[in-house]
Amino acid sequence: MKMSEKFPLVSIITIVYNDKNHIKETMDSVVGQDYERLEYIIIDGNSKDGTKECIQSYISTLCDITHKDEGRFYMEATHRTKANFAFKFLSERDSGIYDAMNKGIDLATGEWCNFMNCGDRFYDLSVLRNIAPLLDEQYGVIDGGVEIVYDENYKKIKYYNIVFGPFKIEFCHHQASFIQTHLLKKYLYDKEFKIRGEIDFFSKVFINNYKWKKIQTIIATYNTLGISSKITFTQFMEDILVGIKYMKYYFFTHTLYYLFYILPRVCIRNILPKKIANFIRQRLK
After folding, report:
1. Number of H helices, E strands in the chain
2. What Rg value do the Cα atoms of the chain yield, rounded?
3. What string of DSSP letters covers 139-151?
4. pLDDT value at position 87?
5. Does some domain include residue 98?
6. Residue 36 and residue 85: Cα distance in Å, rounded?
7. What is the pLDDT of residue 1?
């Protein structure tokens, strides 16, 4: 039996806005995968720096255009040498990252989705081939490890456990997770969030008792320069907004955790030289 008959169609979604310097690296990591049952969806927020044109040129070089809608700058294409590899590209204004991610979900027809946003990439070119046999439909989410790039001199592999308690809520990185598409279409991302929409989404999945599978496979390389990678007051407040939906005293307990655990660590790391900060990271989970 051929791979295309055995394993599911996977939708990979990339969100980008004004980042022509990094989009090709992300696209290469998807297109270069040795798993061909792929639908690659790129959502651009109507970039003005040449990103849109870069993506369009990339697709035109590799693919045959099968559909074009100039009215909303949307195109579909099929890869010339990979029969089961399809592109969808939409470029239009959005109200933020989660609006863009929802647009990608709306276009997805695969059984599973992964978000590999601009600047991030798959850990290697065999990730999807290795993951595909593990995509069991009895699970709502399947997630693995992520290589976190802190700077040019330091990287760290992390596997995240689910934490859903009074002090903090923590799930996996979306780059390292494969989510059943029907769950994404059911719950979508709350567009009111700026940086913690994934925590809100995963909380909905978790609280509704969908099964979660952890695998010991490194899936993605994640750059900490991304929008949700910094500790900010917005992140703190959005964490609170998620937690108080499910836990009565979360505002108080998470505030204590933030003040006496998170902030001191961040302050110490920010005042230390990079080499020492990275040395500390090596010894902390």
Report:
1. 11, 13
2. 19
3. -SEEEEEEEEEEE
4. 98
5. yes
6. 6
7. 34
- For the chain, the domain total comes to 1
Name the CA dihedral angle for 65, 66, 70, 74, rounded to a multiple of 10 degrees: -90
Q: Measured between alpha carbons, how far is 238 from 43 in angstroms, rounded to an integer?
A: 24
Q: Is residue 101 part of a domain?
A: yes
Q: Is 66 helix (H, G, I), strand (E, B) or coil?
A: strand
CA angle 205, 172, 147 (to 5 degrees): 160
The answer to whether residue 266 scores a pLDDT higher than 90 is no
In a domain, 235, yes or no: no
CB distance 220 to 123 below 8 Å:
yes
Alpha carbon 50 to chain centroid distance?
23
Domain assignment present for 76: yes
Share of the chain above pLDDT 90, in %: 79
Residue 264's CB is within 10 A of a number of other CB atoms, namely: 10
What residues does 75 pair with on adjacent strands? 68, 89
Antiparallel, parallel or unpaired: β 154-158 and 141-151: antiparallel
Nearest to 87 by CA among 70, 66, 101, 102: 66
State the Cα–Cα distance between residues 50 and 65, nearest whole angstrom.
Answer: 20
Q: Tell me whether residue 111 is exposed, middle or buried, using C-beta atoms within 10 angstroms of its C-beta: 0 to 12, 13 to 18, 19 or more.
A: middle
Selection from 221, 185, 159, 240 nearest residue 28 by Cα: 221
- Give me the amino acid identity at 276: I
Residue 10 corresponds to which tokens in the numbers above? 């996977």
Distance of alpha carbon 261 from alpha carbon 238, whole angstroms = 18
